[in-house]
Amino acid sequence: MSIQHRVAAVCPNCGKVTESKIRGTVNIGLNPELREGVLTGRIRRATCPFCSSEFNVEWLFLYHDPTRQFIISYHPIIKDGRTAPIPTETLDVSEKVLCNYNLRLVTSWNHLREKIGIFEDGLDDYPADARFPLDMYRTVQQEVIKKFGRGWERGEWMTINQGGIGRGKR
Ligand SMILES: [Zn+2]
User: Fold this and answer.
1) Same domain, 111 and 164
2) How far is the centre of ligand 1, averaged over its atoms, from the C-alpha of 60 (Å)?
3) Which of 48, 50, 81, 136 could form a disulfide with 11 if both were Cys (CB 3.0 to 4.6 A apart)?
4) CA of 4 relative to ligand 1 center, distance in Å
5) Which of the four pLDDT bands, split at 50, 70 and 90, describes residue 41?
6) In this predicted structure, what is the pLDDT of residue 63?
């Protein structure tokens, strides 16, 4: 399903609070027409009703391709270099997915586009140690140590599936 949210955003031009309808989740299998808007970034663009300027609404976004079996979760950096907490919606979806799904977290829209391109071409993306910004990487690393008793090693992959965090060799 492709879910819409009402999001309050401050217009960067006039400073007024606006409300926009933003898609928080896109299932490209059900709504293939939305893919283009994701790649162009149009899907998160809003027009201010007060001054008519266009701006991007930073909001959590989940891109789901059921055919190629990947999910990319976009977490914009909200403040102090941190992202917003992961919504339960994301966790619900990742619980349902099969083990062979690729799940990735990104914090920039360009990375989102890049990952879509990589997975659509059936290519591998980066190894685990290059995938996350450092503080997010450390948080996940702590979870991995808690679960497996040791951290990642170079060249390993991380997956999130029904069993929680998983790991694997390239
Ligand atoms: Zn405005």
Assistant:
1) no
2) 22
3) 48
4) 22
5) very high
6) 93
**Ligand 1 centroid from CA 50, angstroms:** 5
* DSSP calls for 3-34: EEEEEEEE-TTT--EEEEEEEEEEETTT-GGG
Structure tokens at 107: 């914090």
Contacts of 137 (CB under 8 A, 6+ apart): 129, 131
Instruction: Tell me how many domains the chain contains.
Output: 2
Domain that holds residue 140: 128-169
**Separation of CA 80 and ligand 1 centre (Å):** 25
Mean pLDDT across the chain: 77
pLDDT, tens digit, 9 for 90 and up, residues 118-167: 889 887 775 544 445 555 556 666 777 777 777 766 556 555 544 566 66
Do 14 and 86 lie in one domain? The reply is: yes
Residues 81 and 41 in one domain: yes
In a shared domain, residues 47 and 84: yes
pLDDT reported for residue 167: 67
Q: Which protein residues have a CB closer than 5 Å to ligand 1 (ion)?
A: 11, 13-14, 48, 50-51
Q: Which amino acid is at 51?
A: C
Do 37 and 102 lie in one domain? The reply is yes
